[in-house]
Fold:
Amino acid sequence: MKFFNILALGIAMLCINATTLTAQQFDTYFADRTLRIDYIFSGNHTNQMIALNEYAEWDGWAGRRTNLDQLAVAGNGDITVRDAKTEKVIYRNSFSSLFQEWINDSTAVGAEQSYQFTLLVPMPLAEAEITVTLYDNRRLVQDSLSHHFNPKDILIRNFDRTEKTEAEYVWKGGDAKDVIDVAIVAEGYAEEDMELFMEDARRTCDILFNYEPYRSYRHKFNILAVKSVSKDSGVSIPRKDQWLSTATSSAFDTFYSDRYLTVKNLHGLHDRLAGLDYEHIIVLANTDTYGGGGIYNSYALTTAHHPLFPQVMVHEFGHSFAGLADEYFYDTPDAFTTEFYPADIEPWEKNITTLVDFGSKWEDMIPEGTPLPTTEGANRNDCTTLGLYEGGGYQTKGVYRPTPTCRMRDNSSPAFCPVCQSAIEEVIRFHLE
Structure:
């Protein structure tokens, strides 16, 4: 279903080599502070533009302190920070965006829209050059913006003296600088709903750690419940003319898809988190309507009171945390057939392939003698038998997945497949080692 989608763009994971900036070098280039950079992405399916909106800062950096000049996976965009004096790359990160997803949707034809986006980087000690680049699904640059940053700029918005949103840990594995920090944000919970939110946040934590490899690495995570109060209970559903005043202004019907629930006011979302320790975001929506969304290194958003919440939440976090691709596809005559994955380009996501560079994926994990392509067996919930199964990335042909099913394919799968587990573990280790 389309609300699971993040656009498949970019290149394969970059190798970590001997030049990688280590945790010991963090203090050479950065203060223990967070620099938040707000952007506006705008345009249509043929022309795009990036604009700088605002800087903000606060004390403490909860992000990674190792592999600073590397990318875990490519995403469909990246940010690069260079020391202005030496031009040395001192920090990189990758992401995907709702804007780039929109420009590949039919509603973008002949239309112009703008989308907010926010990135967090450690605060440079000296002046820096910052470059943000967006790529299309052929790895061509859609747009790129470079801007000079001065840490002494008087217009950097300072959140140190701003009251933080009330927050409470539901799981703490260690100090923020030593673990992966996930914020669970209340959306559509009024003041009288906060006890319910805390129950939902604890449940979210328990569900996440019920899946491998999160279970094995739970001591390397902090989970912070952020009590952002909404005026109204519930979330906006435009098709029902239901518009509510909520903490993050989320809404269903993104791109006119009933089940696609997203946050367009990303700057407002990050305002709710300002001053807190966070790297990754899960937004919990106080509704029993089915839906959600997940965007790599941006946020995961799920509806907390639908019966399928556990499956959907973990699926969406697979997108936002590890950049996993959707493995489902459309096999009806009127199916959604837009080609997200060109046949001559290898997707950057670890859990699908077009066979252009299958050797960089799970080829070496497949048992010897397995027929390729591989035919599904009778077990519909088989998420362990590795092979090369055609269908994935919304396409029935030309894209292949590792197992008959997986948590990234459908809600009936009991677990992530071995390839997805390996990809998630790579990202966890990249953050910490």
The first helix runs from residue 26 to 29. Residues 358-410 form one domain. The CA atoms of residues 248 and 269 lie 5 Å apart. Residues 1-18, 333-337 have pLDDT under 50 and may be disordered.
